[in-house]
Amino acid sequence: MGSYVVDGAMQKLLNHSTNGVVIFAPSGEILWLNDPFERMSGFLREEIIGRPLEMLFMSEGAFKGLTQFFAEEEEMGALFAGELTIQTKMREQRNLFIELLKLPSNEERQFALICEDRLEMDRLRTLLRKGAIVSGAISHVQSKYIQHGAAQPLQDLFYPLLRSARLVAKAKSLILAKPIDEVSFSLISSTKGWKGDLNINSLLTPHLHKAYLSQKPQIVETSSQEEINNLLLIPLTSHKGSFGILGIIDSLKPLTDELFSDLSPLIQSIGEILLVLEEEKERRNAEKQLQESQELLRGLSLRLMEQNSELVVAMEQALAAKSAQKKFLANMSHEMRTPLHSIMGFCELILQLGLPEKQRRFANKIYTSSESLLILINGLLDLSKIEAGKLIIKQEPCNLSEVIVEAISLMEKEIVEKGLSLHLYYPPDLPTEMFSDKERIKEVLLNLLSNALKFTDQGEINLFLREISRAAQSIKIEFALSDTGIGVDDSFRAEIFSDFSQADISSKKKHRGTGLGLAICRKIVEKMGGEINFESALGKGSTFYFSLPLLLNPEKEEPSATPGSGRRLLILSSDPVDQFILKRYGEALGFTCDLTEDVADYDLIIFDECVDRQSVIQDHRGAKLLMLEWEHLWNSNDEAVSLLRRPTTMLQLRKAIFKGI
User: 32 and 11 in contact (C-beta within 8 Å)?
Assistant: First the structure.
C-alpha cells in the first residue's frame, strides 16, 4: 500500500481548514484525509484509509469521470473542478464542489481532492444577502424619515428594534391545515430568561396565534410579574409562508401602518437572519457532538480491533488444542482397548476355574471395572470420531425389526436380573426392509436402553415405533423408549444431551456412567438427518424419542401371507401391554383373537411365564402352543411347546407359526 507523509504543521493547517482534503493513489486507494472530510463523510480514518475512493461516490460513472485524468501525466496543478455528489456513512447524499490536484512525489503519482461543502457556502450567502437587505432597509428608512422630519419615531422604534429584537418563537407547524389553537411555538431566543414551550404560557399564546394568523403586529401589555412593560409581536414571513414571531421588548409606541410597511423588509430580514443563526448554532452543536462521538467511536474501534486480534490468536490456540485432543483420543483409545480385551478375556477364563468365593469376588471386581473402563474408552472413541468428522453413515440393506431385536438381546440378561418388563411394539403396517446404517441405529438404541436400565430399578421399559410420514422411496419413523425410572429434574433439561453430563449427580456411585451416551446419541441421530428429544417427570420416569428418515428397499418384498386366516388365537397373559401387542400382531396375521382363559377350540395359544404351563399343555386339545419367554431362559424339552422369543415382533410370530401350522 502506498503512503503520503504529511508533517505536523501541515496536518494542523489542513485539519483547521473549512475544506475537506483526501489524498489517494492512482489506483484509487485512499492514503490520508483531514478532520473536515471526516465530518463531511461521517467515516473515521480507520474505516476509510486503504479502501477504494469509489466507495464515496453515488455512481460508478461519476468516479470514472473523475479518474479519467489519472491515465495521463500532468503538470502539478488542478486537473478537474466541478460539483459531485458523495455518499456519507449514513447513506445520505451530500453535494460538494471538488477540485482534483496532482501532488509531487519521488516514488509514484499521488492525487488530492479538495472538497468544499456547498451547504455551508449557501448558509453564508444567505446571511450576506440578508445583511445587504438590512443595510438597504436602514438606508431607505433613514433617508425617508430624516427627509420628512420624522427622526423621533425612528429613534423611538428603530433603535429599540435593533437593541432588543429577538426571534422569540418559532412555529412548530408551517402548514396551518389544522385549527390555529393547535399550532404551538418553541422559544429559541430571549433576553429576559423565558424558557421552554410558549404553548403553556396563557398570557402570550393567544397573542402569538393572533399575530401568526393575521400576519399583523400585536401589542401585548404585560404585568409587572413578567418584568416586561410592553411587547410588540411581529409575524415573520418568507416565500414559504409564516415561520415565526419577532418580539420587540419594552416597545414604547406601536408601529403605524406606514412605518411598519417601511420597516417590514428590515424586520423580516432580521428575523430570517436570527433564524439562520439559530439553525447554524444548532448545527454546530450537532457537529460538535458528532465529533465527540466519532472520537469515542475511534477509541472503541481501536480497542475492538485489539480484542479481535486477541480473540483470533486465542481461537487458533483453542482449535490447535482441540485438534491435538481429538488425535490423542483417537490414537490412545485404540491402544487401550487391546490390553483391556485381554484382561477381560483372562478374567472370564479364571471365573470358569471354580475359584473359592473370595477369589471369585475379586476376579468379578476386576472384570466389572475393566468393563466400565471399556465403555468409557468406546464412548471417547465414538465422540472423537464424530467431532473429527470421520463418522461415516452407511446406506446398506437392513431389516429394521431384526436390528431392534438384536440390540435388545444384548441387554437381555441385565433386564431379567433387574426383574423389569420390556415390551417392543413394531406396528404391523410398518415396513421392515430399509436402506440405512444398522450399526449406528443399534448404537443409539443400546445407549438409550443402557440409560433406561441404569436409572430404572422396578417397573417396565417400552420401545414403541410409529410412522411419521412416507414418500415413494422413503419413510420417517419415530422411536419412543419410555421407562419408569427416577426421571430428570427440570433444571437439568438443557444439559441432558451435553458431553460428560449426568442427571444423577447425587448417586454416581450407584449409577455408573461416563455422561457420553446421550451426547453420542444426539450427534449420531443428527448426522443421520433426524432429531432427538425427551420428556420426563422427576420420580415418574422418562421417554426418549428420536426420528430418522430411512430409505425403503424396493428389492425386497414385505411378507404378505396371513397364516391365521380363518383360525382362532388365544392369548394368555396377565400383562396388558403384552395382550395389546400380541392381539394387534394376531389380527394383522388374520387370526380371530381372544383373551379368555378357556383353552378349548383354538388353533394357536400364546402364553407367558406367568401362566401354568402344565395345565395349558394338558388342555390345549391339539392347538399349536407358543410360550413367550426370554431366549436365554428357555429350557423346555416338551415338543408340544415352541419358543416365541421375548420381546417379539410380528415377523418372529409369523416364523413361529409357519413352523407348526
Answer: no
Amino acid identity for residue 55 in this structure: M
**Angle formed at CA 396 by CA 392 and CA 399, multiple of 5 degrees:** 125
Q: Answer yes or no: are the C-beta atoms of 102 and 114 closer than 8 Å.
A: no
- 8 Å CB contact between 657 and 563: yes
Conformational region of residue 3, where left means phi above 0, alpha means psi within -120 to 50, and beta covers everything else: beta
Q: How far is CA 607 from CA 570, 619, 641, in A?
A: 8, 13, 10
Q: How far apart are CA 130 and CA 222, in angstroms?
A: 32
Q: What is the pLDDT of residue 532?
A: 93
**pLDDT for 467:** 95
Set of cell numbers at residue 285: 452543536
Three-state SS string across 302-342, please? HHHHHHHHHHHHHHHHHHHHHHHHHHHHHHHHHHHHHHHHH
Q: 3-state class of 474 per DSSP? A: strand
Model pLDDT, residue 180: 42
Per-run averaged pLDDT (10 residues), the chain, 661 residues: 60 79 84 86 85 75 56 52 79 80 68 79 65 61 54 48 49 39 52 44 66 72 52 68 65 57 67 64 74 78 84 84 70 71 85 84 82 72 69 88 90 89 93 90 90 91 95 93 89 74 51 69 90 90 94 82 84 91 92 81 87 81 86 79 89 82 54
- According to DSSP H, which parts of 148-244 are helical? 151-153, 159-164, 205-214
C-alpha span between 69 and 272 (Å, rounded): 44
Rounded (5°) CA angle 221-261-178: 65
Side chain identity, residue 300: L
pLDDT given for residue 195 in this prediction: 45
Contact assessment for residue 475 and residue 469, using Cβ atoms and an 8 Å cutoff = yes
Distance between CA 200 and CA 181 in Å, rounded? 12
What is the DSSP pairing of strand 641-645 with strand 624-629? parallel
Cβ atoms of 43 and 91 closer than 8 Å = no
pLDDT of residue 504: 52
Sign of CA dihedral 49, 55, 60, 61: negative
CA 209 – CA 211 distance, rounded (Å): 6
Dihedral angle of Cα 480, 483, 487, 491, to the nearest 10 degrees: -10
d(Cα 256, Cα 252) in Å, to the nearest integer?
Answer: 13
Strand partners for 172: none
* Contact predicate 43/22, CB 8 Å: no
Identify residue 558 by its one-letter amino acid code.
E
- The C-alpha atoms of residue 287 and residue 280 are separated, in whole angstroms, by 10
359 Cβ contact partners less than 8 Å away, ≥ 6 residues apart? none
Q: Report the pLDDT value the prediction gives residue 198, as an integer from 0 to 100.
A: 44
Q: Which three cell numbers stand for residue 591?
A: 387370526
E strand or H helix at 67: helix 60-67
- Which stretches within 172-256 are classed as H helix? 205-214
Distance between the two ends of the chain, CA-based, in angstroms?
90
Report the alpha-carbon distance of residue 65 to residue 60 in Å, rounded: 9
Residue 99 near residue 79 (C-beta atoms within 8 A) = no
Cβ distance 411 to 420 under 8 Å? Answer: no
Nearest to 246 by CA among 163, 166, 338, 305: 166
- Give the C-alpha distances (Å, rounded to integers) separating 269 from 215, 217, 246, 258, 576: 16, 16, 11, 18, 100
- At 9, list the grid cell: 504543521
Three-state SS for 570? Answer: strand
Reference 465, options 319, 581, 563, 594; nearest CA is: 581
